[in-house]
Design a protein that fits this description.
It is a single chain. Helices cover 57% and strands 4% of the residues. It contains three helices and two strands. Strand 1 (14-15) and strand 2 (19-20) form a beta hairpin. Helix 1 packs antiparallel against helix 2 (45-65). The protein is flat, with a radius of gyration of 20 Å.
Length: 97
């Protein structure tokens, strides 16, 4: 079967239909880092599970929903770019009266 996609259609391959593959890989790497830090700090299994879920669940929601439907990797890139170039100023044009 051949499907015809319009020119303005943004076609992306997604994992389970709602999360991009780069974001999924980013989440897995971040979760592994969080998991290892929690294992180093805490000994109780119940406490590890509660803390891991409380940290990972907001990250998962933000990565699925995003900021204004923007990819979370791009959001972190924009934040890093802004932090690097803080001397960019807002220009407000004054009207002549």
């Amino acid at each position: 079967m051949k499907f015809i996609f319009p020119q303005n259609y943004n076609f992306k391959i997604k994992l389970l239909g709602f999360i991009d593959y780069p974001v999924a890989i980013f989440n897995i790497v971040l979760w592994l880092i969080i998991y290892f830090f929690i294992n180093l700090i805490f000994k109780d299994l119940y406490l590890k599970i509660i803390i891991f879920i409380s940290i990972v669940f907001p990250i998962l929601l933000i990565s699925i929903i995003g900021f204004n439907h923007e990819n979370i990797i791009y959001v972190f890139y924009y934040i890093f770019k802004f932090m690097k170039n803080r001397h960019v100023y807002l220009y407000i044009k004054k009207l002549k009266t």
